[in-house]
Amino acid sequence: MGTATVNYKGVELEVEFDYQPCEKKVRYYSDGSGYPGCPESLDLTSIKIDGVDAWDLLEDQVDQISEQLIEDREDYSDY
Prior knowledge:
alpha+beta, four-stranded antiparallel beta sheet, 2 helices
């Protein structure tokens, strides 16, 4: 779990999230199987404005806020 501040449409949001980095594709393991890999994912778990829960207010914009957070990030691998 991680926390970050994101500027979304001119408003500073304090968000909490679960982050899963991408997993690379493995063409073949020694037994002949493989693994298709998976893309990174970032799931918001909390959105606050000045410490006040704003999830209900922004619920229909969660995907856009997540995308903004991914674009702004440096590296979430520590989370």
